[in-house]
Amino acid sequence: MLFPIFIFKEKTGDFGVIVPGLPGCYSAGGTLDEAIANSKEAIELHLEGLIEDGLEIPEQGRIDDYKKHLNEGGIAALVEVDASAFAGQSERVNVTFPKRLLAKIDRESERLGTSRSGLLQSAAKRYLSESGTKEQKKPARSVREPKPEYKRTK
Fold it and tell me: How far apart are CA 105 and CA 115, in angstroms?
């Protein structure tokens, strides 16, 4: 799963990192490379906390969805984290799609930088949330921001 991050040069000379798709997830580093590497670890720890609290990993937007951070002088980057390790047990299923639809799914998943399975999971979650299935939400821990709400897992 790709996580957009924004890196800012701090007055101290270090680099601060925010992960806008995971409110409350921050990191830093003495160099740009350190900041990016440390942000991956921060994301993994944040995901572990969400799962421990029984919360769902939120879908991530694209860098363009967080343009305000670019306007504030941030440098945009993408960090890849294997979120499947945090998603609990997965089950392989066999489904059938028309070839043209599957080709569209593959093109869109490539454009978004995700897998076919990741795109289909996101689409299914979005459909279920929009179809009226209401789940209890529990606020997640936050450091500097109001507590965001994440969907509960099973």
Answer: 9
